[in-house]
Amino acid sequence: MLSKKISLTQRSGKFEIDEGSQEEPDMAPARAKSIAFPNQKAKKKSNINWTNWSVSFVMIILVASLSYLVLSIGNLKDASADSISNVAGQVVSRSAELVNPNVSEKRYYSVLVMGIDTRGVEFDGDEFVPDKWDGTRKIDVIMQIVYDRETKRVNFISIPRDTSITAEEECMHQEREDQKYINRFYDMAEKNNCPFSGSDAMKKYVTYITGYEIDHYVITTLDTFVELINIVGEDSGGEKGVWIDSPRNIGDYCPNDWYGYDYVYFPQGRQFLNAKEALCYVRVRKTSSDFDRNRRQQQLITEIMHLITNNSTLTNPIKLLDLYNHFNSKMEMSSISLQDITMGLEIMREADLTNINKIVLDDQFGGQNAYLTKPLYSKPGTHTRSGYYLIPTAWDKSCCSNDEWKLVRQYIQELIQNPDAKPKQAAIYTYVNAYTGGKAVFNNPAYRAFKARAENEALFFSESKYALQTRADGPDIQIYDFSNGEKQWAIGRLVELGGSNVEVYSGSEAPFKRLNKEEIAIVVRN
To answer: What is the pLDDT of residues 16-65, one digit of tens each?
Structure first.
């Protein structure tokens, strides 16, 4: 279905993205033009990536710092655990800064968090492998956390698991459309013994979608969230858990360990959930959607981040070591350097966790079907999950024939730089006033020129197969505003592009009822 394919070709010992010659001078940060993959899969087990001289230097500083710690506190037996942890945390921070005073100058720092299907999969210390015949290694949670060092703001970008991307790597074997879902990429790269790892494949394609390079990644089973909540959660009635504010009443079915489902109910409003209930809260989707589930996942991760920071876990080296030792053998993650420690400490001190910018890619992103869409009609076998299957609206447009994710990346950047910006795009459907040969055919030359100009301005229409009535006293191109005036930007651009051939009317004046929940309807007289 997608017109553009991304390929990894081996050049000078590395694999590069072959994307054509189209540049994006207005895209900042520019998406990576190449991703270096090792010729053989590197060991992915987490480690502290220090050089020998750095380790020696660190040891000298730590010894000196700990000596100062002893002198500062005096009798350690009489010191409280909190005071020791507080000073020790300052020692770690100061040591990292002394070893690596030149912190990265880049504005954005990004971590990719991935949750793998818990059932039928185990971590062998290097990668996730199926431990049963039906283990799938599907990545069901894909969330990029982008920290803006200039605004001190944390941004969540959730990518639905059924987002479709076409890759041309021979080892990926995307013969079927359902193999293009991004949640299959980890398994395909590992199962087919690609020269790059499954985590590398996920990092590359997430970067391609969002435009933000990934500094670190972590892959874990969803059950690990249960263990994490049991460690850092709040106490209520003898249980550890989190407080969640459910936006509505949710009655749904949660997967259990026996490949069945248990009925769960979460009433609207603030409530305490124990660890297992919290896991169900972010897993259920049968009565909602994958997109709604993405929003609940963002809710839970936000609450966990608050718990960690409120409990001073991240500034307590003892707790940090306990958490690291507990989860290190249960998750795949990237290596950590002194520079990463310095950056992490800086983020802990400065990040505003009370105002997280949460972005979910769905068919409402930037307006209904404005940038992303769920295809309603397709040839048999084209896709298997029409309810959540997601593709860029611009995949077949003249602006983006070589890069169908370009407009999505640009709009993500706009939302991160200005989170309060309202969507400029609109859901626009175009209709003809009469069928030609039993079909909706758009023959009007004024409309065809009008459409071409609009697409050059990245303003897209969805042409309906249905015909609707026009006003007898109106021009050839009639625009009806069903947005209650909320899409004036789009309507103003349409009027500029159409000139004397266009007239705008309120939706209440339309001689028809809207069919596709569109915000703007355009009816063309053929």
So the answer is: 434 333 333 333 333 333 444 544 555 444 444 444 444 444 444 444 44
Which pLDDT band holds residue 416 (cuts at 50, 70, 90)?
Answer: very high
Q: How far apart are CA 52 and CA 65, in angstroms?
A: 20
Q: Is-contact 247 268, C-beta < 8 A?
A: yes
Most confident of the following: 244-253, 400-409, 418-427: 244-253
Q: Where are the domains of the chain?
A: 52-99, 223-326, 426-526
* Other Cβ atoms closer than 10 A to 417: 14
Positive or negative, the CA dihedral 205, 211, 213, 216 is negative
Question: What pLDDT is stored for residue 225 in this prediction?
Answer: 80
SS3 354: strand
Which structure tokens are listed for 320? 């940090």
- Whether residue 423 is preceded by a cis peptide bond, meaning omega within 30 degrees of 0, is no
User: Predicted confidence band at 261 (pLDDT cuts at 50, 70, 90)?
Assistant: confident
CB 168 within 8 A of CB 299: no
**Range picked from 68-77, 161-170, 222-231, 410-419 for highest mean pLDDT:** 410-419
CA 81 to the chain's CA centroid:
39
Residues 6+ apart with CB under 8 A from 331: 123, 218, 219, 220, 221, 224
CA geometry: angle at 248 spanning 242 and 249, to 5°? 90
- The residue ranking higher by pLDDT, 362 or 30, is 362
Between CA 281 and CA 437 the distance in angstroms is 51
Q: What pLDDT does residue 502 have?
A: 93
Q: What are phi and psi of 144, to 5 degrees?
A: -100, 125
Q: What Cα–Cα distance (Å) separates residue 360 from each residue in 293, 298, 364?
A: 10, 9, 9
363/379 Cα distance (integer angstroms): 20
Kindly report the CATH number that applies to the domain delimited by 426-526.
Answer: 3.30.70
Nearest Cα to 157, choosing from 357, 303, 407, 332? 357
Alpha helices in 129-274, H assignment, sequence order: 185-191, 198-210, 223-232
Reading the block at residue 41, the tokens are 């899969």
Instruction: Write out the H or E segment, with its range, that includes residue 432.
Output: strand 428-432
Residues 210 and 458: their CA atoms lie apart, in Å, by: 18
Strands 462-467 and 428-432: parallel
**Among 113, 138, 456, which Cα is nearest to 298's?**
113
388 or 182, which is more confident? 182
Residue 31 identity (one-letter amino acid): R
Nearest to 378 by CA among 164, 140, 188, 138: 164
pLDDT at res. 42: 53
Q: Give which of 163, 213, 115 is closest to 360, Cα–Cα.
A: 163
**62 SS3 class:** helix
Q: Which fold has domain 223-326?
A: Aminopeptidase (3.40.630)
Name the residue with higher pLDDT: 130 or 198. 198
pTM: 0.71
